[in-house]
């Protein structure tokens, strides 16, 4: 039986994924400072090339600021449909060869190779897989190989661009020790600055801070940080097909054919679970719509979509599915919406053509929903459910995303 200490975990990460896809589409962009995002002054940078990063540019930076730092940068609008297709292409390559894998984001994967050393040699096998992906997809990809997910991810970051790095069992703390504290996942700019103000600049120093002191500084996050600094991570590789889906359905008090009501329900349910997606920092790549007619016949239809968690994008797709699915013109008893093929990510990557105001709007909406409940703020639709004419409907619903 394989124990946690005996595990072998590979972390694969497609280098500058959106940028690499754009360079593959137009090789004249290779080696140049490239920004992927909206072209207006008020848009944001969704991704940038290594050449652009040398000017201090980073993702989520206002496009206007990025172009001020690098006036000669090339801007390309994002193509989430193409990026999603490329992501699925890489996923199929990994799925066809890996014994167990987790798709943790649109461009990152964890593979559990525990026990493979007895047959192939994990490093040899992983190197061969990386070469195969590069050859077949034409995209650069890096990997880290270690005893847990944390170390393999940090190793991948150190191996970039387009490289590989193995950290042998027992050498985890030695590998982490000289790295800056910001190299540890979950240590962002604010946490890093807080640690540096206290004289903690390297992972080695962080690992030596008493856990009780870190807890006093940062609460429960301090305990998690201490564990990471000491290379401890027992989290399992979660098989991709077991990734949680998010769904909701509604059985109506009375069967109905009222299109206005049905569309309003679609809006309500889509907004509800889209908010759950953003709460979990996830994107969906597949939507399933379910209808049950008055004669109890149940039908479903699904479609793959560019990865997203944005209300206005998902609503458009849900309504498109409903239009294709509802063809019997019978009374409807139940309707359901499900998001699956979930990966980690946030709404910024699907808003290439939107301005800062759109991202700020989503953040403001989610802050209100977090405080008062998801149903407090929704797309403007005042409807009364069939059979409930006496129902009082909230009048403080704010219309948005017209």
From TrEMBL:
Domain annotation UmuC: ranges: 9-188
One Gene Ontology molecular-function label: DNA-directed DNA polymerase activity
A Pfam entry, by short name: IMS_C
Localization in the cell: Cytoplasm
InterPro entries linked to this entry: DNA/RNA_pol_sf, DNA_pol_Y-fam_lit_finger_sf, DNA_pol_Y-fam_little_finger, DNA_polymerase-Y, DNApol_IV, IMS_HHH_1, Rev_trsase/Diguanyl_cyclase, UmuC
PROSITE patterns: UMUC
E.C. no: 2.7.7.7
Catalytic-site annotation from UniProt: 108
Reactions mediated catalytically: DNA(n) + a 2'-deoxyribonucleoside 5'-triphosphate = DNA(n+1) + diphosphate
Keyword check for DNA repair: yes
GO biological process, one term: DNA-templated DNA replication
GO cellular component: cytosol
SUPFAM superfamilies named among the record's database cross-references: DNA/RNA polymerases (SSF56672), Lesion bypass DNA polymerase (Y-family), little finger domain (SSF100879)
Tagged with keyword Magnesium: yes
UniProt remark on cofactor binding: Binds 2 magnesium ions per subunit.
Cofactors that this protein relies on: Mg(2+)
Swiss-Prot/TrEMBL site (Substrate discrimination) positions: 18
Alphabetically ordered keywords of this record: Cytoplasm, DNA damage, DNA repair, DNA replication, DNA-binding, DNA-directed DNA polymerase, Magnesium, Metal-binding, Mutator protein, Nucleotidyltransferase, Transferase
Family to which the UniProt record says this protein belongs: Belongs to the DNA polymerase type-Y family.
UniProt-listed PANTHER family: DNA POLYMERASE KAPPA, DNA REPAIR POLYMERASE UMUC / TRANSFERASE FAMILY MEMBER
Assembly, per entry: Monomer.
Annotated HAMAP family: DNApol_IV
Protein name as catalogued: DNA polymerase IV
């Amino acid at each position: 039986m394989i124990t946690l200490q005996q595990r072998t975990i590979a972390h694969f990460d497609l280098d500058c994924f959106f940028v690499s896809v754009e360079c593959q589409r137009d090789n004249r962009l290779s080696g140049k400072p490239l920004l992927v995002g909206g072209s207006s002054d008020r848009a944001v940078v969704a991704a940038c090339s290594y050449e652009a990063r040398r000017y201090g540019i980073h993702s989520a930076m206002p496009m206007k600021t990025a172009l001020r730092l690098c006036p000669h940068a090339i801007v390309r609008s994002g193509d989430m449909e193409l990026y999603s297709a490329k992501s699925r292409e890489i996923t199929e390559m990994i799925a066809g060869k890996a014994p167990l894998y987790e798709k943790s984001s649109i461009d990152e994967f964890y593979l559990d190779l525990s026990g493979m050393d007895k047959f192939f040699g994990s490093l040899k096998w992983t190197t061969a897989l990386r070469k195969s992906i590069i050859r077949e997809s034409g995209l650069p990809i890096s990997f880290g190989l270690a005893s847990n997910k944390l170390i393999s991810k940090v190793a991948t970051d150190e191996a970039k661009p387009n490289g590989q790095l193995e950290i042998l069992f027992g050498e985890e703390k030695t590998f982490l020790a000289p790295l800056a504290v910001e190299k540890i996942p979950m240590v962002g700019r604010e946490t890093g600055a807080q640690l540096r103000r206290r004289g903690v600049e390297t992972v080695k120093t962080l690992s030596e801070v008493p856990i009780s002191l870190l807890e006093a500084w940062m609460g429960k996050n301090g305990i998690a940080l201490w564990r990471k600094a000491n290379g401890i991570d027992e989290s399992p590789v979660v098989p991709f097909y077991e990734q949680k889906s998010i769904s909701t359905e509604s059985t109506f008090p009375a069967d109905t054919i009222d299109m206005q009501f049905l569309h309003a329900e679609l809006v309500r349910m889509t907004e509800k679970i889209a908010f759950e997606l953003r709460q979990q920092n996830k994107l969906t790549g597949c939507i399933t719509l379910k209808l049950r007619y008055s004669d109890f016949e149940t039908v479903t239809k699904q479609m793959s979509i560019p990865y997203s968690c944005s209300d206005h994008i998902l609503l458009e797709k849900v309504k498109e599915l409903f239009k294709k699915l509802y063809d019997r013109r019978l009374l409807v008893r139940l309707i359901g919406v499900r998001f699956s093929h979930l990966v980690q990510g946030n709404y910024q990557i699907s808003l290439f053509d939107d301005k800062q105001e759109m991202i700020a709007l989503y953040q403001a909406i989610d802050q209100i929903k977090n405080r008062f409940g998801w149903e407090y703020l929704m797309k403007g639709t005042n409807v009364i459910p069939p059979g409930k004419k006496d129902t009082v409907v909230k009048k403080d619903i704010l219309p948005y995303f017209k």
